Amino acid sequence: MRAFRDAGADIVGVGSALIGLTTDEMGEYFRTLERDMAQGSNVAEQMIRYDVDMQFRPVILVSNERVTDDICILTFDRKVDLQAGEFVFLWIPGLGEKPFSALADDPFSLAVIDVGLFTHELMSLQPGTEAYVRGPHGTPVAPPAGAKIITVSGGTGLAAVYQLARDFPNSEIFTGARTAERLYFLDECRKIAPVHVSTDDGSEGFHGFVTELLREYLQQLLPAERKNLIFYNCGPSPMVRAAVAVEREFCGDDQIFSAIDYLTKCGVGLCGACAAPDGRRICVDGPFMDGASVV
Ligand SMILES: Cc1cc2nc3c(=O)[nH]c(=O)nc-3n(C[C@H](O)[C@H](O)[C@H](O)COP(=O)(O)OP(=O)(O)OC[C@H]3O[C@@H](n4cnc5c(N)ncnc54)[C@H](O)[C@@H]3O)c2cc1C
Ligand code: FES
After folding, report:
1. Is 36 exposed, middle or buried (CB count within 10 Å of its CB: 0-12, 13-18, 19+)?
2. CA distance linking residue 77 with residue 108, whole number of Å
3. Do the beta carbons of residue 259 and residue 160 sit within 8 Å?
């Protein structure tokens, strides 16, 4: 019984040790732990992250702007320290907590699409409401210096890539929607980068899917220019998969990063709910992960 209890404690200990570690870091942790056990050393302990912040911090809603029939932009009263590519959990007492990319860090804002109970409540959240934010979580994006960044987004995927295009100067934004009425935040985007717009019905910009617009753009680039591209895709999964397929026609997998909203619960790598088909967990290895992991 005692041995059983100790084994349980070890498992809990190892579980806590893995909070916030990416899959690569976790592999390295276990290899080091094995060496420690063989040599009687304790090097693995230095790899444990004691800095993962699980605190919720209050934010107050300043404005709630409905930008399409089912998308709103929530702007809060303060800055939340976030790097491009990271995400947060928003907690509304009595309603629960859900993961969101930040549209921007200062002031902290979210673009939310109405898909269920939580997001529906956000559509009518009143200015003055106190909400709580946990995070940031995930791994910030880190494109190579000098790379040209191409972001491809649909729906609220724009939230995940706006700050990225803002923070990396050599960026271009591709964004698509079914109709012109479903486009939003374009003026803000145009202030930070060239914007390429498509609508399925041709009511604004290129007539067709954003992926077709992207193909036309890539076709006219020289091979050397294509080699210097890094793609960040975010939006509905069919759009992301189509974008990856087009990008692969011209570029390598190592140039393609995509974020897909796998179910995300703990946000710190413990529960496994957010595992991609290849086993990586988007909450610590992503949300942006290389192309091969999402197709
Ligand atoms: C890293 C990340 C960033 C995100 N960024 C945004 C964003 O900027 N804007 C936005 O509108 N949405 C974003 N989402 C998705 C958002 O979390 C879900 O739309 C939301 O949780 C739905 O909750 P609900 O109660 O309204 O709907 P529910 O009725 O609970 O579910 C509706 C659908 O939403 C998805 N969903 C539900 N819960 C989760 C969850 N915990 N994690 C992921 N997907 C879930 C499922 O596909 C489900 O079928 C993001 C998700 C992740 C993982
Ligand atoms: S491991 Fe729990 S949400 Fe990613």
Report:
1. middle
2. 7
3. yes
3-state SS string over 163-190? HHHHHCCCEEEEEEECCHHHCCCHHHHH
Ligand 1 centre to CA of 75 (Å) is 18
Kindly identify the ligand whose nearest atom is closest to the C-alpha of 117.
1
Residue of 265, 280, 289, 293 to test ligand 2 pocket, by largest number of atoms within 8 Å of CB: 265
Ligand nearest to the CA of 137: 1
Query: What is the pTM for the complete model shown?
Result: 0.90
Of the candidates 59, 65, 70, 111, the residue with the CA atom closest to the CA atom of residue 87: 111
**Whether 207 and 116 share a structural domain:** no
| 282 CA to centre of ligand 1 in angstroms | 13
Residues 20 and 82 grouped into a single domain: no
- Cα separation, 270 vs 16, whole angstroms: 8
Q: Which domain holds residue 167?
A: 148-293
Residue 264 Cα to ligand 1 middle (Å): 8
Residue 107 included in any domain: yes
Q: Could you tell me the distance, in angstroms and rounded to a whole number, from the CA of residue 38 to the centre of ligand 2?
A: 31
Give residue-wise pLDDT tens across range 42-90. Answer: 888 888 777 777 889 999 999 999 999 999 999 999 999 999 999 999 9
Percentages helix, strand, coil for the chain, rounded to the nearest 5?
35, 25, 40
Distance CA 57, CA 94 (A): 16
